[in-house]
Amino acid sequence: MRLLLVEDHNRFAESIKVGLENQAFAVDMVDSGAGADAAVASVQYDAIILDLGLPDTDGLTLLKQWREQGNVVPVLILTARDGLDDRVKGLNTGADDYLLKPFEMEELVARIRALLRRPGGVLGLVMTAGNVSFDTTAREVRVNDQPISISRREMGVLEQLMRRYGRVVPKSVLEDKIYGFDEEVSSNSVEVHVSRLRKRLTKNGASVSVHTLRGVGYLLSEGSLNN
Ligand code: CA
């Protein structure tokens, strides 16, 4: 899942980013309204964490523009201003939730997950494909009800394939969802993670496998048609 963090206090932003990455989120960080607009125009985020006080604009102004453009991405507002006024304005403007600074990382993660679990959000409870299940909240993968160990990137790949079970997922979608802007993505890295995931599923007795459609993308389905 890919998040955008809009926060101009760089050290603070960096620590939030690290905390979220530890919870298997891909995080893009921008420190201005202009940066946020550019990022939102180019990537479809699963959720946005938005600071209200930015150097070039106010977070509420940004949010209002996004909503007017029909962008319904879940937005969580971060604010140091604890006036009731700001909170009410934020929610009226279309924010989904807000968090007052300072906060605990666990609290932020819990709020983000709650946003993603809402109807239409990207976190369901548990997805299944054949005998494989993926608990999007606990971030746990099971085969035949037995938890398996799996790397963060492989989990990211599997999640996207399970969300589109039986349909082709273009490689570019996997790249978009499992890496942030600042991460180096070598040309074959998605292939590497897919290949490891495929072996891991087979080794653990999964009834579904990952198929490669050359030049098109990947498909998770029952049985092993090729590769
Ligand atoms: Ca600020």
Walkthrough of the structure:
The chain has 227 residues and is α/β, with parallel strands linked by helices. 40% of the residues lie in helices and 23% in strands. It has two domains: 2-117, Response regulator (Rossmann fold), CATH 3.40.50; 126-221, Arc Repressor Mutant, subunit A, CATH 1.10.10. It has eight helices and twelve strands. It has a five-stranded parallel β-sheet with strand order 2-1-3-4-5, with helices on both faces. Helix 6 (152-163) crosses helix 7 and helix 6 (152-163) packs across helix 8. Calcium ion (CA) binds at residues 8-9, 51, 53-54.
Helix and strand arrangement:
Blueprint lengths: L1 E5 L3 H12 L4 E5 L2 H10 L4 E5 L7 H10 L6 E5 L4 H10 L3 E4 L4 H13 L8 E4 L2 E4 L4 E4 L2 E2 L4 H12 L4 E2 L1 H8 L10 H15 L4 E6 L3 E6 L5
Parallel strand pairs: 1-2, 1-3, 3-4, 4-5
Antiparallel strand pairs: 6-7, 7-8, 8-9, 10-12, 11-12
Helix pairs in contact: 6-7, 6-8
Bound molecules: calcium ion.
**Which ions and ligands are bound to the chains?**
calcium ion
Strands of the widest sheet, in order across it, are 2-1-3-4-5
Sheet bearing the most strands, described?
Answer: 5 strands, parallel
Rounded to an integer, what's the Rg over CA atoms? Answer: 19 Å
Overall pLDDT metric = 87
**Structural class based on helices, strands and sheet pairing:** alpha/beta
Q: Note poorly predicted spans.
A: none
Per CATH, the superfamily of the largest domain is: Response regulator
What is the level 1 CATH name of the largest domain? Alpha Beta
The number of E-state strands comes to 12
Can you give the helix content as a percent range?
25-40%
Oligomer: single chain
Tell me, what's the shape? elongated
Report how far apart the termini are: 27 Å
Total number of helices: 8
Order of helices and strands: EHEHEHEHEHEEEEHEHHEE
CATH architecture of the largest domain: 3-Layer(aba) Sandwich
Number of structural units classed as domains: 2
Percent of sequence in beta strands: 15-25%
Named CATH topology of the largest domain? Rossmann fold
